[in-house]
Amino acid sequence: MCTVSFVNANGKIIITSNRDEKTLRPNAIEPKNYSINNKKIIFPKDQKAGGTWYAINEHSTVLVLLNGAEERHLIKDNYRKSRGLIVLDLISSNSVIIAWKAIDLDHIEPFTLVLFENGKLYQLRWNEVEKSTIELDTTQSHIWSSSTLYPKEIREKRAKWFYTFLDTKPEVNETELFNFHRYTETENTEHGLVINRNEALKTLSITQTVIEKNKVAIHYNDLITERDFSNTFISV
Q1: Which of 162, 185, 186, 190 could disulfide-link to 143, CB 3.0 to 4.6 Å?
Q2: Would you say 95 and 88 are in contact if contact means Cβ atoms under 8 Å apart?
Q3: How many angstroms separate the CA atoms of 123 and 111, rounded?
């Protein structure tokens, strides 16, 4: 939930996410099909709170969570609801972007969402005071890093790695993007794409969705158990 990239490779939409989390947290359940509000949704489940950081519905809507908003915030003792459950509330609605406008986020910890819905890309943010909604250019590539783990100068450095990588790959594909998320700056365990901060905080998994016309492919790599899970379906 802490590094997300979006790439439109000649009409093939590729959304990739690295989840950085405390190692004390129970390992996530691999992506499975669930029915919520009569909506078919695929997501890896956080065993602690029951939510997720990455969800795809049957209409090929993708919603990805990053902790934090613009900058790092002070963490309170209690919040009303897990951010991962907010993801499920939104993805199980008839329209995420409409539900986003209506949802009450009072006493919810700050977060950023990357939303791809009906061919449009959005950055949605809650900073404990107000929501912000930005529609982004789907012909351009984008990357986000969590503000809670990476200060501004590091986020900018990571973005530079991303755009430099893309400059060397005029015909980038999903495998190359997965490898970027998996192997960039491998010696930099503090701020590389896969981190390991004193065995207490690690990149636990990489999730990737590839949307090509109405075909949706999901790939999940559990870095702790070294297991892979894949699923493909036709969107409706």
Answers
A1: 162
A2: no
A3: 11
Q: 32-83, pLDDT tens digit by residue?
A: 999 999 999 999 999 988 999 999 999 999 999 999 988 778 788 789 999 9
E-strand spans in the chain?
3-9, 12-22, 29-36, 39-45, 54-57, 62-67, 111-117, 120-126, 131-136, 142-145, 196-197, 201-212, 215-222, 227-234
The pLDDT value recorded for residue 199 is: 95
In the prediction, which pLDDT does 75 show?
81
pTM exceeding the 0.85 threshold for the entire prediction: yes
Read off the pLDDT band of 6 (50, 70, 90). Answer: very high
41 and 32 in contact (C-beta within 8 Å)? no
Contact in structure between 191 and 158 (CB atoms under 8 Å):
yes
pLDDT, average across residues 172-197: 97
For residue 111, which of 39, 4, 224 has the smallest C-alpha distance? Answer: 4
Q: Which of 152, 177, 147, 182 minimizes the C-alpha distance to 163?
A: 177
Match 């995420």 to its residue by tokens: 96
- 3-class DSSP state of 179: helix
Say yes or no to pLDDT of 145 above 80. Answer: yes
Phi, psi of 159 (to 5 degrees): -65, -40
Q: Position of tokens 């949704």?
A: 41
- Whole-angstrom distance, CA of residue 27 vs CA of residue 36: 22
